[in-house]
Write a structure and sequence with these properties.
By secondary structure, the chain is mainly α. It is 71% helix and 4% strand. A 3-stranded antiparallel beta sheet has the order 1-3-2. A hairpin with a 3-residue loop joins strand 2 and strand 3. Helix 2 crosses helix 3, helix 4 runs parallel beside helix 8 and helix 4 packs antiparallel against helix 9. The protein is globular.
Amino acid sequence: MTLPAAHRIRLALENAIVDGRFLPGARIDPEAIAAEYGCSRTPVREALQALEASGLLIVQPKRGTFVAKLGVPELMDRFEVMARMEAFCAGLACRRADAHDLDRIATTLDACEAAAGDPDRYYAENTAFHQAIYHAAHNAFLEAETLRLQAILQPYRRRQLQSPGRVARSLDEHRQIAAAIRAGDTDRAERAMTDHVLVQGERFRDLVALVGRLTRQPGPQAGGVALR
């Protein structure tokens, strides 16, 4: 199934930003993007709005749209908070999840299993798995805030899945989280989710290297990147 133009452009820009092809502070040229995709400004505008909401872009009135500057300390702060929020969701899910919630978690876990050979597909199923747990917490405010922070970190979490062996480890961690929630084991679910989300060890070094590429590599300061 062909993705809508706005969605394809958003994903392409996410990749370009996280890969360092658009450097921090680089200006995004909507007209160049529209020309490359052969589309109107409308889907480009929708894609840029989504990326602004995720925290990857900053719109400065009368100046334009720019890539946000996030360094390792800022990202680590966000991952630290994300780990606690997701652990809280998992803990609440142990106590509040109903049969429908447990089925949804199991279904999304099965989808992750089926997508394990394709990191890009796994990324989408991974997102659905986490969102099923947010919903199972049955706290609308917590769910909304966790979804917002998830959107900010998604490009970085997605790129981490490209690391050798990371998908297999992620999938095993998903199994542990789902099993703990089904068993109603709050402590185990919170601990497993914290370890799954928190950036540490090799994942910390991968993140440092990723941000290093983002800030040091030469790249365009405006449009002109092949986005497909």
